[in-house]
Amino acid sequence: MSDWYKTLPAEGEPLIATRHPDIVHYFQDYYDAIWQGAAIIKDAGKQADNQMLARIRQHLLANEQSAD
Fold first, then answer.
1. Got the DSSP string for 5-52?
2. How many Cα atoms sit within 13 Å of 3 on the Cβ side?
3. What are residue 44's phi and psi, to 5 degrees?
4. CA dihedral sign of residues 59, 62, 67, 68
5. Please, what's the largest Cα pairwise distance for the chain?
6. By the 8 A CB rule, do 14 and 20 touch?
7. Is the dihedral of CA 16, 18, 23, 24 positive or negative?
8. Whole-number Å distance between alpha carbons of 27 and 13
């Protein structure tokens, strides 16, 4: 049996790397799609969007309360 599990990070998620062009392309498309749909919370050198942070905070609190 392999000892790979002994080197997992504390979070329990294995970190992997690949150079296979098809796999790299697949994940690049995936992350590009995520970034295109992302909301900007803070631009470099600017103040954070406090309204956006308030909505996120409210959403997280609502989810936390519904989980109880």
1. GGG--TTS--------HHHHHHHHHHHHHHHHTPPPS--TTS---HHH
2. 2
3. -60, 130
4. positive
5. 52
6. no
7. positive
8. 17
Side chain identity at residue 9, one-letter code = P
Contact 56, 47 (CB under 8 A): no
Q: Which amino acid is at 16?
A: I
* 58 CB-near residues (< 8 Å, 6+ apart): none
Instruction: Quick: pLDDT tens for 14-60.
Output: 677 888 999 889 889 998 999 898 888 888 899 999 998 999 999 99
Residue 4 gets which letter from DSSP? Answer: G
Instruction: List the structure tokens of 13.
Output: 């998620």
HSE of 61, CA atoms in CB hemisphere, 13 A: 6
What is the pTM assigned to this prediction?
0.46
